[in-house]
Amino acid sequence: MAQTTPNHTQTVSGWAAHDSSGKITPFIFKRRENGENDVTIEILYCGMCHTDIHHVKDDWGITKYPVVPGHEITGFITKVGRNVSKFKIGDRVGVGCLAATCLKCEYCKGSQENYCDQVEFTYNGIFWDGSITYGGYSKMLVADHRYVVCIPDNMAMDRAAPLLCAGITVFTPFKDNNLVDTKGKKIGIIGLGGLGHVAVKFGKAFGHHVTVISTSPSKEQEAKHNLGADDFIISTNPKQMMEKKRTLDFILDTVSAKHSLGSYLELLKVNGTLVIVGAPDKPIDLPAFPMIFGKRTVKGSMIGSIEETQEMMDLCGKHNILSDIEIITTDQINEGLERLANNDVKYRFVIDIAGPSSHL
User: Fold this and answer.
1) Which of 284, 300, 316 is a domain's end point?
2) I need a labelling partner for 286 at 20 to 30 A (CA). Which of 150, 161, 174, 299 fits?
């Protein structure tokens, strides 16, 4: 493991955390030369994910400092390797969480490479050459073309960026549970944040009856009138929860705070499914009786394959689905991370990487 290898000769400007204080400062580093399977990308925008906070502060005890966060990346291709045929210079592209997988296991061969045992991520991972990966809080990226997707021409590059993590995270459960091509189901979305608001848009675009389930009564107006949700349940209101018992076919849980699944499971019909995509740092409560007496299923899901990510992007282009964002400049990264930690964003921060030069 090394920060660079002899092939890392390209000097890049970026922004990194150097210790568990999590403070981001300007950082000059090296990237590898564009290899035969690579594309070089001039980064325009990079979304800010809650995972970035965990890494810069080493909340999970796995951070390799200095860490350059960012895995919701959009930009233009400036160079292509000789083995690359599906991209050309000037293409609008995106890079999400994946940097490398083994390419040989059953999951890689079955278009589920995101579950490969040897998966390495866009930042804080170890690439095939043994170097540490640096993410999208930087001016340029060299990426293996097999982990890059096309951005449809009608999609704004800034609002498309969060779809590369938040979007695919909520899209995959829709696809896995036959909710992309089958209409008319009653689905619930727990939480109306960076993931939840995109999930509502997917649900409506795919022809379902969408109920937002939230602890915040103030979000009802937003859910119904701005995002098009059909119904709204305040999860702390026992009367509302009881009235909606056994009414939903499917629930997507996007909440990243510790909570109990018991009352939410009661909202499902018999044989209903609840999928967890939020990642609480403490165990959630999973009572047995709501599962047993409703023959209900609880599943987990993480991002998606590159094939699924491209499918999602194409559908977003078709249905005009984009993230609702707040643009920040590079000198506002620390402020953005702090506000994100306090849930003070509607709904996703996106860093204008290619904007005017600024200093932290």
Assistant:
1) 300
2) 174
